[in-house]
Structure formats: C-alpha cells, structure tokens
Amino acid sequence: MSTALAASALSTAAPSYLSPAGVEIAFVLIGLLVLGSGLLVVTVQNLVHAALWLVVCLGGIAGEYLLLGAELVAWVQVLIYVGAIVVLLLFGLVLTRAPIGPTDELDVKYKLPAIVVAAAAAGVLVTVIIDAYRTVWLDPRDAVPQGTNAANGAALFRFWVLPFETLSVLLLAALVGAIVISRRGAESEDDA
Amino acid sequence: MHTVYPLLLGALLFAIGLYGVLARRNAITVLMAIELLLNAVTINLVAFGSLIRDQFNIGQVFTLFIITIAAAETGLGLAIVLMIFRQRGNADIDGQRQLAEPLGGPADETQPSADAAALPPDAEAGEKAEPTAQALATTEAAR
Question: For residue B35, which residues of chain A lie inside 8 Å, CB to CB?
C-alpha cells in the first residue's frame, strides 16, 4: 500500500519543501495556535481560563478543517463544540462551585508519570507518522467538492443511514440518561 | 499540502490530551482533555478523508458521528460529575475512594480528599459494608 501511495505521490510531481503553498503556511500557523492553546487548556491553573482556551483550540481546529477542504465539518465543529459543548462545560463549572480564581487544586500531585506517558506517546506517533507519510502529498482543493453540504448529505443518507439513525437513538438515550441522573441526585438531596 | 502536517497536529494534540487526562484532578478539566483527544482523532479522519477521497466520504461522515458522540458523552459525563459533587461535596477524581453512593445526604459526606485518604482502614471497611439500605438489611439478616 505504501508503494501505491508513493507511486501516486511521485506521479503528481512531489512539491518541494522550499516553496510551501499559502495553505500550508496557514495550516502550520493555525496548528501552532491549536497546539499552544491545547497546552494551555491542560496546564493553566485557572478553570475558567482553561475553558476559554478550549474555545480557541476548538475554533482553530475548525479553521484547520476549512483548510483541509471539509467545509460542513468545520461549521458543525463551530456550532457543536464551540457553541454547545464549551457552554455545557462552563455550566458544569458554575454548578460544581468550581474555584474561579487560580488554584493549585486542579492537578494531581505527581505529574511526572503523566509527562512521561504523553512524551512517549508523542514520540512514537511522530516517529511512525513521519516515517510512513513523508512522501505523501494531498491537495485540499481536490477535497473541496467532498466537503460541501450536498456531498456530505448525499453520503450520509445514501451510505450511512443506519449508523446515522442509530446515533440519533444513542443521543436520545444519553440525554434521557443525563436527565434521569440529574433528577435522582435532586431527589436524594430533597430526602436529606 | 504535505500529509505529515495534519497528521502531526493530530498526534501532538493527542499527546496533549493524554497528558491532560492523566495529570488533571478536577473532573471537568478531565472532560476538556477528553475533548482534545476526540478532536485529535477527528483531525486525522478529516486529513485522511481529503487524502483518499472515497465515494463514501468516510472521513468527514465519521467526523460528524464523532462530534455527535462527543456531545452525548459530555452531557452524560457532566451529569455524573454533578451528581458526584452533590453527594460528596467535591468533584476531584483521585479523591473518590468509595464506589457506592453514600447513605445520607451530602451533609455527612463532605470530606476533602486528604481526610478520605487518611481514614483508618477499619473505618473505610465499615463504610463500605453499608452502601445502601438494602445491603444494610441483608447484612443485618446475615448476622
């Protein structure tokens, strides 16, 4: 498979490293923004700031989707993640009376194992990915027709109808479960 | 565009999320780190989707599915975190030593994690033996 990918890459005359395209530069810059804000999400000592950095990180990822040619996914990312999930997390912060100011209660006492595991995962993944895909190129402009609403809708309702419906039932079950769990906690509080 | 760029972004974001899951103690920050993990996976999916461009549009469709599952997971996880906070007074993950729900209300169970760790083992065993009223009744009957 790698030979086929390499052959297809060679047939399209692999671009050089020295003159990156504009989309490549934009991708790397937004990627640095995403990585930096992601690092702040997991390290900053202020819970509300962590949630707001998560907005920056997820919004940057939406920009990356746009640069990869996935238009509908990018706007769904903005709607669902930035619009709904982060707001849900902020509600959670408010409802658990989380410490609003900077605290040192957010992290575990011994961070060294976590750093070791994360660095090992990053090292293995980066090594394998660079080794496997260093000769493969993609042109996001070729993927733009696949990222439109029409193409996504056709694929979703022509080939993926059953998973789509199953997911809707799963979402309904999860929301009902969340409501039941919240109600049960309220009842036990009333009893006490 | 070099394929390595989006894949590297996904890999590094995955490592950051992994660090967050392992190093954070507050449950809501762990949920945020799980969002980072899921987004790292979806970046990979979208990148491979624009690389392969199959007729099923599998990368982007699966990304939409994962976003849906992430919404469900966050809602459910947050409900569980809120319930644990209501019953025990804090939402620290490594302070939760008991699997069972406490018998009383939140009043007699508000103990910081340091106290829970410093409890003598017999006291913990005594608390574990009576998780619910029904289990209490069965243990009484057994005696």
Answer: 54, 58, 81, 85
What are residue A65's phi and psi, to 5 degrees?
Answer: -60, -45
Across the interface, of A35, A107, A143, the residue whose CB is closest to B25 is A107
CB-nearest partner of A156 from B42, B61, B70: B61
CATH number of the domain residue A102 falls in: 1.20.120.1200
Question: Domain total for chain A?
Answer: 1
Q: Give the tokens for residue A8.
A: 């297809």
> Is residue A70 assigned to a domain?
yes
Residue A38 has pLDDT above 50, yes or no: yes
What is the value of pTM for the model shown? Answer: 0.80
Q: Is B32 on the interface with A (CB under 8 A)?
A: yes
Amino acid of residue A11: S
Residue A59 lies in domain: 2-142
Q: Do A58 and B3 touch (CB under 8 A)?
A: no
Selecting from A41, A84, A136 the residue whose C-beta is nearest the C-beta of B36 gives: A41
For the residues A161-172, what does the mean pLDDT come to?
Answer: 95
Residue among A25, A57, A68, A72 with most chain B CBs within 10 A, to mutate:
A68
Scan for tokens 């624009």, then name that residue: B50
Domains detected in chain B: 4-94 (1.10.287.3510), 97-142 (no CATH)
> For residue A104, what is the DSSP state?
S
